[in-house]
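Dear Dr. H.,

I hope your travels went smoothly. While you were away I took the liberty of generating a structure for the chain from your last submission, since the lab meeting agenda had it listed for discussion. I wanted you to have the full record in hand beforehand rather than looking at slides cold. The sequence, exactly as received, is reproduced here:
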Amino acid sequence: MTVFENQRHRINFRINSSRQILLIFVLAISSLSLTAQNIGQYLKVSENNRFLIKEDGSPFFWMGDTGWELFHKLDLEEIEYYLMNRAGKGYNVIQAVILGECDGLTKPTPEGYLPLQDNDPRQPDEDYFSKIDSVVQMAAERGLYMAMLPTWGAHAEDRFHPLFDNLSIFTPTNGYEYGKFLGRRYRDHWNVIWIVGGDRQPTGNEELWTQMIKGIREGSEGRHLVSYHINGAHSITEFPGIAHQLDFYMLQSGHGNLVTPNYEMVAKDYAIQPTKPVIDAEPVYEDIPIAFSAVNGYTTDYEPRRAMYWSVFAGGFGTTYGNNSVWQMNRPEYKPVLDPIHTWDVALDAPGSFQVGHLNALMHSRPFLNRVPDHSLIPGDNFAQADYKIATHDATPGQNDATYIMAYFPIVRHMKIRTDIIGADQLRAWYFDPRTGNAYLIDEFENTGEFGPPWKLRIRPQMGGKDWVIVIDDASKNYPPPGTRL
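The corresponding predicted structure, in token form, is as follows:
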């Protein structure tokens, strides 16, 4: 049995007592290890307004997971397992909704809780929010930040929802009060980020979202970052009145097409003034029907992986992974959405879920806070959307003082990369496998201003897959292999 098959067999909540003992042991060791680290730091925006950093100035690469229905559909034991799984794979942000989309106001949690009394945002149910308190604390013990949506956007607009109860319960007044309640309740929790909006454009509700943001900031005394989650194929920068209130710009490239050039969306937001950090917080999911129809087949780990690398190399300060069965926490007791393939607990270990940690490690293996996107480093034909090649490097603006280049190419082909941005005479080149995190030293070579891997050292079929990263270093820096943290 392979390692992956073994992982899938272990994800079964009807486990016997010996497995329960093993799980408790692993959780205890994980908790002790994390407690020993200095992980309890609020986040803030970097001085150059391009990245997020911790209070001590160390870089923070957002590696998120969409667990939208986490609070609503899972009990605390299941949530604890989910958090352990995600922390162990290199995630550091969990995106979850307090008032969930999937009948979140009318269908109780496994414990029997509803979030509000009489569907009134001014009357939060204490049992429900005590559960959220426990989740925030469990996440903190594992070094995870909770990017929490106060509500799914459907509950803030009087529109028909084709799948679920859609109760419009918010006004600017109770939105402010609800936001202040949330900000105050979680003010002293360092691992909280607030994301208003909930998969909807703010059109017609600008005052509601403005008041909710105001309430959150007042309640939290400004300790938490705030952004806005918009619907697919859009960015909140399309709505400057809301965007200017946020700490960072958020877009959703979404799931409506087989190929969405999210690098263009990120590049557009990267260029907007005032400068703020940019993230694609919902690129295409793994195992989702292509264009929302199972007739077209399903995405694999390749499509979300490509979207994540595109968005980061285009200038994003992080990215988010998602799986169609996991976001909705698909289980028999609840209505499935968009033809999920697996239950949530099986999908938790889909191939792509293991790969995100490699991207996180790659970005931390080179200088981080002066990284810039630079499409000019890849000369020649680069017009095909699906095969778009993209590069990033560190640098001082206007100077050829880069110490590394990273270039992502979605398919294997002979590729030239400009290296004149690096001033050193000697360079060192690597292949980095985004599926496994393996780094392969290509060679050291003289910097002639351009590099392409020699034919004899080309990528072979047995090495693993079609998309790769080439990393080129100033050899004198002696950076570790890509994926080995500095």
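Two observations you may find useful: Residues 17-35 form the longest helix (19 residues). Residues 39-363 form a domain with the TIM Barrel fold (CATH 3.20.20.80).

With kind regards,
E. W.
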